[in-house]
Amino acid sequence: YYNRAISGNVNQRIEVDSIHCNFNTYPYAVTTYAREYIVRQSNVTERSLVTTCTLQNSVRSDNNPQGFLMENFLVKENRDIQTYKR
Question: Which of 73, 67, 68, 66 is CA-nearest to residue 55?
Answer without folding.
Answer: 68
